[in-house]
Structures are given as structure tokens and as C-alpha cells.
Amino acid sequence: MATPPADLAERVRAGDVRAVARAISVAERGGPDARALIARLYPHGGRALVVGITGAPGSGKSTLVDRLVGVLRAAQATVAVVAIDPSSPFTGGAVLGDRIRMGGHARDEGVFIRSMATRGHLGGLSSATADAVTILDAAGRDVIVVETVGVGQDEVEVMRLAAVTVLVLVPGMGDEVQALKAGVMEIADVFVVNKADRPEADRVVAAVESTLALRPADASAWTPPVLKTEATGGVGVDAVWQAIGRCRDQRAGGDRETRSRAQVESRLREAVARLAGEQVAMRSAGAGWACAVTEVMARRIDPDAAAGQLLAQAFGAKSGSGG
């Protein structure tokens, strides 16, 4: 028998680890129970520091996260890790299972680790990642680390969720060229050149620093540091956490408010789009939807126009582009 959202929310707020795991599963399934659960937990969040860790596959993100967790636990901070993995084409579940790479913390009650599958969602995160962060925040975790799937240069969605974003680069994977590109380079608050024992590491650092030097000067803005680490041995990881803390502290004023507002606006747009889609699917199921598909297939109407008609049917509004 499923736990009612109200009861599950109370157990989450009490820090019950089993309840937290179950709540994230509810959020991943979506639907009315997920919305009711988040509605009860959302007012009790906003306290945790959310750190995004992104970068290309093979850059050592999971190892860095594992070492960061060790640093945080040494400081008596409670931690949650949400590791986004590719989806299995057969089960839809997470393929890599980052919990395996962070197994050293499995018996630590101060650490909660959850792998989530992308399930086709673009941008490096899962569609339920924001809800998972809300749940963990309400459960009282001090720091929530979100590790993205590592999909490449356009993996920028983490910025809309994290207070501080760390981009992990690695020598020998073309990062000197990537450093000159737009996209993920523009969202980083802290740059980490991992596997810095490789001879090309200094070249990557120089390339990133040169790119940062091209940005408009702003004395009040945060200047992203470029740090070198050897995460496997824990070298340089303390400096990464210190940089994250400095970034958080510097943004304690207006900049933090601006960033938070942009994040809320982004999440609100996603919620509106999701709920609108659910309403259209529910109200246009059957003949209306089948008719729209037939009309588009016959090219008597284009997809946008058909979508406008479905929205009009679902919400009782006039379709059209305005004017």
C-alpha cells in the first residue's frame, strides 16, 4: 500500500532515509502524488547549498564528487549526491550507477547517494532532478551535489538548479579547443583541471585562463578560479571546496537573488509546459488526437497549427498566433 503524500512528507522532513528514497521514486514517476508531495515539501527547502558538477565523460567527475564528500564529512556537513546517468534502452533505469564509484560512503548515515536516469531528458539532468533536490533539501541535508550525465558542450541545465557550478576538464581530450567554445564554458563558477599529473594539464589551464580574460571586466562579479586536481589521490580537492564556499559567500547579496529568481522562472516554465502537456494529452485523447495526427500526416495542417488546435480544445481558448 502506497504511503499517502502527507505522511511521506512528514517522514522526509524528519530525515528518514527510507522515506527520502521512496519520495524520490514518487517524484520520478510523476503524477498527482508527486505534485502533492512536492507541494508539501517545497516550503521547507531553500537552506541547502546545491553544487553542480559537470564535464565530459571520463573527466573524473564521480571520483571528484567522492573526494568532495569526504571533505564535507570531515567538516561534519551532511551530504546528498544526485548522480545523473544515461538510461538503459531496455529498462529505462540508470546504466552506470555512480553509487558503485562512491561505495566508500555507503555505511555513512550522513551521506545519501542516488543515481537517476536521464530517461531521454536533454541537458545533462533528469526531468525529476529538481524535485529530488527539493526532497533532499527538505530532509535537512546541508550540501546537495548534482553530478550531470556528461553529455558534452550543451550541458548547461545544471546552472538553472545549482547555486555553484563546477566544470571538470581533463588533459588530452581536446579541452584546449573546448575552452574556446560557448555553452558549458559560460556557466562554470569554478574550473577544475583534473588528472593534473598529465603533462598537458598546464596547457588546459592556460587555455581556460585566456578565455576568461576575454570576459568584460566587472569588479563586483565573481571571477571563476582555475584549479588543478588529482582526484584519485585527493590532491587539490580541499581547494575546490574552498572555492565553492567563496563563490557562495560572494553571491550572498543581490547576485544570489538574481540567480535564484532566474532559476525559479526556469522551473516555473518547465512546470507550466509539463502540466499543459498533461492536460492536452488527457483532454485530447482518442478521436481529437487521432484526427490531429491524421491531418498532420496528410500535410493538410502543420504540427504547430495542430498543437494550437489541441491546446484550444484542452483549455477552451482560441488558437492562433495573436494579432
Can you put this structure into words, describing what you see?
- The chain folds into 3 domains: 1-44, no CATH class; 46-251, P-loop containing nucleotide triphosphate hydrolases (Rossmann fold), CATH 3.40.50; 264-315, no CATH class.
- A 7-stranded parallel beta sheet has the order 3-2-4-1-5-6-7, with helices on both faces.
- The chain is built from 11 helices and 7 strands.
- Residues 87-98, 120-124 and 318-323 have low confidence and may be disordered.
- It is globular, with a radius of gyration of 22 Å.
- The protein starts with a helix and ends in an 8-residue tail after the last helix.
- Helix 1 (5-13) packs parallel to helix 3.
- By secondary structure, it is α/β, with parallel strands linked by helices.
- Helix content is 44%, strand content 12%.
Describe the protein's topology.
Blueprint: H1 5-13, H2 17-29, H3 32-41, E1 49-55, H4 61-74, E2 79-85, E3 111-117, H5 129-138, E4 143-147, E5 164-169, H6 175-178, E6 190-193, H7 201-213, E7 226-228, H8 237-250, H9 254-283, H10 287-297, H11 303-315
Helix pairs in contact: 1-2, 1-3, 2-3, 2-5, 4-8, 9-11, 10-11
